[in-house]
Amino acid sequence: MTLVLTCLTHEAVLIISDRRLTSYPSASRPVKVVQEDATKAVFADHWLFGYTGLSRLEGKRTDLWLADRLVKRVQQHLSICVSEIMQDADRQISWVERLHPQLAPIAQAFIGAGWFIDPLTNKSYTGYYLVSNFHDTRGQPNGVGAFRTDCRDLTSNSACLVQAIGAGVAMNEIRTLEVQISRTIRRGGGPNAVGRHLFDFIQMISQREVSVGNRFILSCIPKASFERQCRGERYAFFSGLPERNHATFAYFDGDTGTTRQFAPTVVMNGSTVANFSTGPSEEL
After folding, report:
1. pTM
2. What pLDDT does 168 receive?
């Protein structure tokens, strides 16, 4: 099971996920690495999405399955889209469990983090939607059950909020990570410094969890980029490290140090773009 880390700050939204696919574990079969460079991240306007669980739903790669739902709903209120994702995921996971009972129960989760506008104050703020069948109302892993949707915002008295879905991470580890990031932010650190914390953390987890690979995509949408989009200005998503002015994505290969930019799946202007990459980028 992959690991997706989401971090909300008052300046940016960031998501990092590994790219390893593994076989589904069972009592008679240990976890086996199937692929090292699978896309599990989706960028949709001013939102970033990731998933953990089955890598194919309804015969499609799960990132493309997710993009199909986002491309239809991204211009409407996101809660409508999230509700559709939950209903379709519940139906599909139930079907797979009936077809392959040896795999049941199947844990599956999706997270989307991005920017909201307060209609009363017209101020922007960050939040996330979590669609999962194995997290409780506090966003903590629980036994597999019915799918549910939760929405959380970053409060004004907190510097950051971190949510992990996927491979086993203790809540005290997440709280420690939040303390470290909050300290960095209060010292003036921006999105790149926050991204460094997320990168170090997921790399540490990859060394102890076989289901978490050491190739990652880190995506970031800063406040300045979102506000330009709200003003109707040209919107772009750049290859590079997190920064304060532009939405970015960065690919990291822990084996070779390769910085060629494999990109997330992108939903923009009513269409989906997948399987593309760019030239080299900076080092984190």
Report:
1. 0.93
2. 79
